[in-house]
Amino acid sequence: MRICKCREDKSLDAKLQFARIPQEYRQSRINNFEINLYRTDEGKERAAIAKRVAANFVANYPAMKEQGKGLYFYSYQKGSGKTRLSCSIANALVKKYKADVRFIRFVDLLNELKNSFSGNGDVNASELIEAVKNIEVLVIDDLGVEKVSEWVEEVVTSILDHRLNQNLVTIITSNSTIEELDKRYQQGRVRSRVEKMTFPVWMPEESIRSLIAQQENEEIQDILFR
Ligand SMILES: Nc1ncnc2c1ncn2[C@@H]1O[C@H](COP(=O)(O)OP(=O)(O)O)[C@@H](O)[C@H]1O
Ligand SMILES: [Mg+2]
Q1: How far is the C-alpha of 15 from the C-alpha of 99, rounded, in Å?
Q2: Can you tell me the distance from the alpha carbon of 104 to that of 123, in angstroms, rounded to the nearest whole number?
Q3: Is the residue at 135 inside a domain?
Q4: CA of 143 to the centre of ligand 2 (A)
Q5: How many Cβ atoms are within 10 Å of 211's Cβ, its own excluded?
Q6: Atom number in ligand 1 closest to CA 28
Q7: What local confidence, expressed as pLDDT, does residue 123 receive?
Q8: Domains: count for the chain
Q9: Tens digits of residue pLDDT in 129-183
Q10: What CATH number corresponds to the domain at position 92?
Q11: Residue 207, class by beta-carbon neighbours within 10 Å (0-12 exposed, 13-18 middle, 19+ buried)?
């Protein structure tokens, strides 16, 4: 039986909806991740490596899936392209492999946990937790941006632990190195899991977000100062 094109498109749309990739990054593609926007040679070089890693990750996804290997994009600088590149990978995995993907900001996950804790004291009741534990590809955006309490660390550990044991692919963005995760998660079990589950990719220490904002302002200044 052949599945008609429109039905296929619908199921792709549904998958993309389910992935909850933020509006800003829905159109992001690895191909249009620009290297020349970065100003320094080092920035351009790191961006080029990151882009290549992203493309090779997608091309070799079956092998990565087999090994349960994800990626860890990090830079101290905000706006360097970490979320964009992870979303580009997520978009590509949905399109190319019809993968089940879920994007979640780490702070949203924490808030959700807090709510379900204060609600009925049973975090397992949260569908979100089950979803993030078992989804084929999980993107955790901005892991460890805020200081977390012990119980949150426990839950994060249990999510990662489950995914590690099930060999599921997790893509993480963070503003710290994997080693530095120990400072935020002092029981030390987050870092060791992330280390096993991901391949680290150092992003440029340059903010493309500010650069784009400056360029936009330069363009409108001609109108506003007229
Ligand atoms: N290499 C790039 N090419 C094009 N746009 C980029 C690039 N890197 C970042 N951007 C844009 O800059 C903004 C900040 O990027 P983002 O990925 O959110 O940064 P981070 O997650 O590192 O804080 C976004 O609007 C993103 O689309
Ligand atoms: Mg980000």
Answers
A1: 8
A2: 17
A3: yes
A4: 10
A5: 14
A6: 27
A7: 47
A8: 1
A9: 888 999 999 999 999 877 678 877 888 899 999 999 999 999 999 999 999 999 9
A10: 3.40.50.300
A11: middle
Calculate mean pLDDT across residues 209-214: 93
- Domain assignment present for residue 115? The answer is yes
Q: Which ligand does the CA of 145 lie closest to?
A: 2
Residue 216, ligand 1, Cβ within 6 A: no
- Token match 């019809």: residue? 98
pLDDT of residue 111: 83
So what's the pLDDT on residue 61? 98
Range scoring the smallest mean pLDDT among 2-11, 20-29, 82-91: 2-11
Tell me, yes or no, whether 194 lies in a domain.
Answer: yes
Backbone angles phi, psi at 199, to 5 degrees: -105, 125
Which ligand is located closest to the Cα atom of residue 24?
Answer: 1
Q: Is 208 in the pocket of ligand 1 (CB under 6 A)?
A: yes
End-to-end Cα distance, the chain: 63
- Burial label for 166, CB within 10 Å (0-12, 13-18, 19+), is exposed
Which residue is associated with the tokens 């955790």?
140
Query: pLDDT value at position 125?
Result: 45
Residue 188 Cα to ligand 1 middle (Å):
30
117 assigned to some structural domain: yes
Range of the domain at 95: 9-224
Query: What's the 3-state SS for 75-134?
Result: CCCCCCCHHHHHHHHHHHHHHHHCCCEEEEEHHHHHHHHHHHHHHHCCHHHCHHHHHHHH
